[in-house]
Amino acid sequence: MRSQRRRAAPKKELGCDGSNSDDLSITDMPYEILIFILSLLPVKDAVVTSSVTKKWRFLWHGLTHLNFDAMKIFFDNTSLYRLERSKFIEQVNSVIRNYNHPVVHRFRINLGISDLNRRVIDEWLQFAVNKKVEILELDLNYDFPLILPNSRYVEFVSLKKLYLNNVKLRAAVLEDLLTRSPQIESISIHDSTYMTHIRVAGRHLNIKHFEIVHCRDLQSIYLG
């Protein structure tokens, strides 16, 4: 009789730390990779992952890109607009209250033309100021302030890019904002009212891109 040869069992791959790779799961991935994965999710979904495992309870706090987009929510639920709007506000407030990372690289709020209580948006803007945001994008019906409720001037020490859509912005507020944001390089303003004459000047300014679109009250721009 021919002797039967036993096939050797396939070798199991070992992880970098010598552990069996078959036993590895997504929760064992390096912190940097997990943060990258979370950054691809909507903020509300990234926050939900804190309930997956104790290891992830505060993982979402490492996100430095906070993107709150309510456009799809509002358009898909027009009959429940007020309810959905309240839920969205609470979601943003909850993230802001529990967020403890020292800086935010990008902060975006997209509400289209939806009206919200100004005090609520002022608090969101104050959060962006406190977290030394570098990229700020606001798409909402909002009167951009010169001074926030805490009696402080709006001052972005690290801001590099500013995008405003549907935001009411007076020329004097823009000029003051630029003098208090020494790092700003790019400005895009769309569908804004109140601005008639814009003057952007000063040796300290480092602006490389300046865009004005559909600002129907605008009469003149001076760049110097």
Tell me what you see in this structure:
There is one protein chain. This protein has 224 residues and is an alpha/beta fold. It has six helices and eight strands. The chain has helices at 31-39, 43-48, 71-76, 81-98, 118-130, 171-179; strands at 65-69, 106-115, 135-143, 161-168, 186-190, 197-200, 209-213, 220-223. The strands form two sheets. A six-stranded parallel sheet has the order 1-2-3-4-5-7. A two-stranded parallel sheet has the order 6-8. It starts with 30 loop residues before the first helix and ends with a strand.
Strand order of the largest sheet: 1-2-3-4-5-7
Compute the average pLDDT.
79
SSE class: alpha/beta
What's the shape?
A: globular
Distance from N terminus to C terminus (CA atoms, Å) equals 97 Å
Poorly predicted runs are 14-19
Helix % is 25-40%
Order of helices and strands: HHEHHEHEEHEEEE
Quick recap of the structure?
By secondary structure, the chain is an alpha/beta fold. It is built from six helices and eight strands, in the order ααβααβαββαββββ. Strands 1-2-3-4-5-7 form a six-stranded parallel beta sheet.
